[in-house]
Design brief:
- The protein is α+β, with helices and mostly antiparallel strands.
- The protein has two domains: 88 residues, 434 Repressor (Amino-terminal Domain) (Orthogonal Bundle); 169 residues, Beta-Lactamase (2-Layer Sandwich), CATH 3.30.450.180.
- Helices cover 49% and strands 11% of the residues.
- The protein has 13 helices and five strands.
- It is globular, with a radius of gyration of 23 Å.
- Pfam families: HTH_31, MLTR_LBD.
- GO terms for molecular function: DNA binding.
């Protein structure tokens, strides 16, 4: 790193520290704060670093942080994907590739999901694991926060959670589509131990999955609309949009919308019951 890069790195850290409030990172506000944003010692503590070392880094001293240290700083300062890339570039380090379980959902992205209420919204990673959600998603699709990582996998749930089979009007078309999607990805990128284990578990525990996995031409129903039979409020008709954000490459954001007034009212009722 050149001296200019050290200085630029320090200024960037200082700017991001000033942009955060104690509440945003879970710290008490306190009665008097002489600095804007967080204190240096607060950032150091959040990142698990010594205050002296962090001060030297922010002052632009010739300190070379490791990729692991940059990751803890990124989390402490709640950096989005572009800011993480910039931080790693300044430090002459390579941003680690996304791996299962490594996706970081920023507070801004979570706020986006929450703003979709009463419409269910969630984020899935590239292996169909639900990694973030809003309250409406919990009220419709189940309590993801109480599930294990495997139980939050959409393909696993399609075959192993009886709730999903009862919930989805066209469960068979949905399940067949998931099999086709899984087979396509696995044929292109077979060297994935987590996915291989998922497939083996489903082959052992689900006869329907085994039958459809061995049918090379199965396609299922195209995505776009859902009719669900909710046990508490009855039928809900949904359409939905799926898209990706630069902040979370290889992850998909899905927002469900009510297809009619009655469905919207039922979603609102579910959310009111969830919150109360």
């Amino acid at each position: 790193m050149t001296q200019d890069k050290h200085q630029e790195l320090g200024l960037f850290l200082k700017k991001k520290r000033a942009s955060l409030t104690p509440e945003q990172v879970g710290l008490p506000t306190g009665s008097k704060r002489r600095v804007e944003g967080l204190r240096r010692e607060e950032v150091a503590e959040l990142a698990g670093l010594s205050i002296d070392w962090y001060v030297r880094l922010e002052q632009g001293r010739p300190v070379r942080p490791s990729a692991e240290v940059l990751l803890t700083l990124s989390d402490a300062l709640q950096l989005n994907r572009k800011e993480r890339e910039y931080l790693y570039t300044l430090a002459a380090q390579r941003l680690p590739d996304e791996t299962p379980g490594s996706f970081k959902v920023s507070s801004g992205m979570q706020q986006f999901l929450d703003l979709q209420n009463p419409y269910p919204a969630y984020i899935t990673d590239h292996e169909w694991n639900i990694i973030a959600w809003n309250q409406a998603a919990l009220s419709v699709f189940g309590d993801y926060s109480a599930m294990t990582r495997l139980q939050r996998n959409s393909i696993w749930r399609s075959f192993m959670d009886p709730y999903m089979e009862k919930l989805l009007d066209n469960w068979e078309g949905h399940a067949k589509l998931r099999v086709s999607q899984l087979r396509m990805v696995h044929s292109q990128f077979p060297e994935n131990p987590e996915r291989t284990e998922l497939i083996n578990q489903l082959l052992r525990h689900s006869g329907k999955f085994e039958n459809w996995w061995n049918e090379q031409t199965i396609a299922g129903t195209p995505e776009g609309k859902k009719l669900i039979h909710h046990p508490d409020v009855g039928d809900i008709r949904l359409s939905y949009l799926s898209f990706q954000a630069e902040e979370l490459p290889n992850a998909t954001i899905t927002v469900h919308l009510a297809s009619d007034t009655e469905s919207r009212q039922r979603l609102e009722r579910l959310l009111d019951n969830k919150i109360s």
